[in-house]
Prior knowledge:
The chain is α/β, with parallel strands linked by helices. The protein has twelve helices and ten strands. Strand 1 and strand 2 form a beta hairpin. Keywords: Hydrolase.
Amino acid sequence: MNAQQRMLGRYDIEAESQFIDIPSVGGRAHVLIAGVGPAVVMVNGIGTPGAMWAPLMAELNEFSLYAVDLPGFGLTDTTDTFSENLKDNAIRFLSEVLDELELESPFFIANSLGALWTSWLILDQPNRVSALVYIGCPALVLDTSAPLPMRLLAVKGLGSLLTRLQSPSEKQVEQLSKMVKEYPLVPELADLLLKTEQLPEFRQTFLSMLNTLLRLRGGRPEMMLTAGQLARIDKPTLLFWGKNDPFGSPKVGKRMSEIMPAAELHTVEGGHAPWLKQSKQIGPTISRFLHQHGE
C-alpha cells in the first residue's frame, strides 16, 4: 500500500511489513514491525489501519512495535461472518496474532475498538498481556456510545444507503476527522484513511461491525465494557484521554481510573486519537511506564 509507505516515511520509520496466517480470518493478518526492544502490540480503532500509529511509533523506537491491521481494515483478511460472534472472534484473532508472532505476554497499546478487543482478551486470557496503554476512550466503556453519524450507519439498510450516497472521498475523510475532533489531518494520514476505505472488503466489514456494536440509541448492552469487568483488569494501565474526545469525556477516564485496580490517567489536548498531534508529549510517558513494568 503506497499510502502506508508515505505515512511511515513522513515519520522516518523503517518498518517490516509481515503477513501471518490467522485461521479466525480465513487468511492472513498484516502486521507492521519496527524498532528493537521489549514487545509492544498496537491495536487501532474501527476502520483504521496499523500504520495510523506512525506518529507514536516514531517516539517508541526502543521497543519492538507490532502494529496490527484489524480484520477488514487495512491489509488483514476477514470473513463474511466475523462480526456475527464478534467477541469470541476478536479474542481468537488477537490470541492467534500473538501465537504467530511468538509473543507470550507483550505490552499492548490500543485505541477505541482495539481497546475494547484488548479488554476482552485480558478478561478471557489475563496472562497474554503484561501492561496496557489505552489512548482515547475505549469503545463502549461504561455508559459511552458513539457520535450520532456512526449510530446512524449502524442501522441496517440506512447505513448501506448512507455509504452509497457518500462514497470514500477527500471530503468524507475530512468530515470523519472533524467528527473525531482530530482535524486537520496531515496529508499522508488523510490519504492513508482514504485508501483504506476504498479497499474491497472495507464497507461491508465496517457496517456489519457497527451493527453488532451499536443501536441507534447507543451501544448494545452485551458489547459494553462494564464497571465489573474493568474491576477485573488488574494489569498496570496507563490512560491517555483527549480533552475533546467525542466518544467519552475525561470524566469517563476518571471513573475508569478509579474502578481499575492499577490505572493511571493523563488528560491531554486532542480528540479521539490524541497521539496524532500529541505523540511527542505522550511518547516519553509511555516509554517510562512500559520500562517500569517490563520484566
